[in-house]
What we know:
Layout: H1 3-10, E1 12-13, H2 19-43, H3 53-75, H4 82-104, H5 109-117, H6 129-148, E2 160-161, H7 172-187, H8 207-225, H9 231-234, H10 240-253, H11 259-276, H12 279-284, H13 294-297, H14 299-303, H15 305-323, H16 329-356, H17 367-396, H18 416-422, H19 424-441, H20 449-482
Parallel strand pairs: 1-2
Helix pairs in contact: 2-3, 2-4, 2-6, 2-17, 3-6, 3-20, 5-17, 6-7, 6-17, 6-18, 6-19, 7-15, 7-17, 8-10, 10-15, 11-15, 15-17, 16-17, 19-20
Amino acid sequence: MSGDDEHSRFVSTMTGCAQRELFLTFIITMLGLFIRNLTLPWIFLGTRYDTSKVTYWLKFFADVIFLCLPSLLAMTLLSEHLYILTIIMSIVAGVLLLFVLFEASEHNLSGSLRKAWTRIVEEQHRPTKFVTYFRSLTMVLVTVAILAVDFPIFPRRFAKTEKFGHSTMDVGVAAFIFQSALGSRMAKSPSSGRTLSNHSRPWYFTSTFLLFVLGTGRALVLEIIGYPQHVTEYGVHWNFFFTLAAVRVFYSILPRCYPFVLSVIFGICHQTMLKSTGLQEWILDETANRRENLVTANAEGLTSLSGYLTIFYASLAIGELMAKTSIRVKSWIRRCFQLFIISLLLFLIQLATEKLVDPPCRRVVNITYIFSQLTLMTFATAVCLSIQMFNVVVWCASFPQFSKGDDPFSPVSPCLSDSINRNSLAFFLISNVLTGLINLSVSAHTLPAQYSFPILLGYLTTCAGIVHFWEYRKVNFVRLHAE
């Protein structure tokens, strides 16, 4: 077996994992964020982040523990004990929440909560903070997975599926597509507080062109250095950056109104193309596609585009719903419950398509895969919004230590999630470069856990530390000039 074949077999799986494991992994990551937001105001007593260099970096290491370590443990050392880890973190969060409520009960708790229920969420209260949480936590999970998959400590059932099934590694592209659409729609909503410029940038400065450049650069570099590639992921030359760029191009030339209707149309056309033409069977049959030309060599990447467009427009529809949320706290809390209900409905539809059509297939992005990803992403959005609304409510209700500052998130600032969100592309590129360097330096697939886990923790801390340092320099620069 060649080195490329050996690597491809090692970083893939034929069976995948149970879907509940995906939900548990996301829940564990988000519980880490919730526990962080519960504990930091008491640890630092509401101290602002820009008053001390020591405080800033102490909060960074706290963020690594709360935001990064749970994801890493869930996908490595504790991957066989996800239920236990979830229960332990839920109990910790519950105890801390009871402590917060007990402390607040001395200050007319019921009256404060009733007052907070009708408060207006204004622009300076950062009403779209949940998008930042969702994007940054997803980025952490993806960053862990892209290197951890090369180590034996990463369960093979979490690796990319070759044909059908659920897998942690199958979530990445769909998550980026979902958050791109959601963030794009929320940025244009009145509640975002963002002022959109009327000046269009030159085409060579757009994010779409940059993604094409990165995709081309990645393909060339991997070909030159002979880095082993998982061909059945996207094809021979296609990669993640090309998919994101192509979806943006189609979005720029296709209609933007009625995203829900368009997502239904795209989904029906895509699934019909897969089944009626035999395209799905041809792609999944390893002996049928000989990859003789540029199109067949990249069959997976090209075929999946209409499926990802379906996810993109469905995500836009969810973004439309979120953008219509009223400005009061109670409206945002109701929206949390509505998102959980939508997630449940999507899950029921997914179960139906799984029985009537096919199990989820990442390589062709069939209709079951589309619904499975929309279910997970909508659920994750609802949880992130719930965490955001906790901070908003306790700030509006003047809870001790949680009500300091000009907005609901001042007592827990700075958050590593902000640094990752503002520098998401840099964070992802740094993680890709470090992944390549580590794989070229060590034989990752032979390292035992006692060596691989410290490497993964150091890699994740380095990626986070670089983008957080950039934010520190920006904050310091602004503060010094303000003085």
